[in-house]
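In this supplementary section we document a worked example of the pipeline. Step one takes a protein sequence of length 183 as its only input; no multiple sequence alignment statistics are reported here. Step two produces a three-dimensional model, which step three serialises into structure tokens for compact storage. The input and output of this example are shown verbatim.
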Amino acid sequence: MKKIGQMRLALICGCIATLLALSYLVKESITSGKDVESQHSAELTPTRSLMQLISSHSSKILDAIMIGDHNAIVMEATAVAEDSKAIMKNFFPEGGQVGEWFKETGKNPKNAEDINAVKKDFEKYLKAVVDAANNIVETSKKQNIVETYKSFDAMLKNACFACHEVARPKWPEWPKWMQISGG
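The serialised model returned by step three reads:
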């Protein structure tokens, strides 16, 4: 009986030692996310913040459109409009200085003219998002799901994609075989 107890204790200690060794190895490996963290450590910018916000809510809006849930559509579109306004205040505080993110623009963060130029450009797309989100709310309140979808589509085209055309590098062209097939 004493031997069985000793064997059990040795087995438990061996398992603990093995787990500790494995956890140390895993902690230092790629699976710990060290590489991922270094790739995604870019400073948040107003544009990135707005894109993350719109992405989160627009998927919920589309889900709600697909099932005809007008209350959820109104709630999510209202959140887009309200949160968008908050982003403006966070990144361009009244009389305040802009954050480290401004360096990514290539302009001088201490030059008021540079700040105003970037702010004006951002305000243009932010207004398009807010107006489109408010339009989605008004259309959805009329309980017309087709028109609500058209308003949602207009937000993507007139706000999101319009900004992407200016702010992002040109997207690659579709391959010829896809253009021919309409894809």
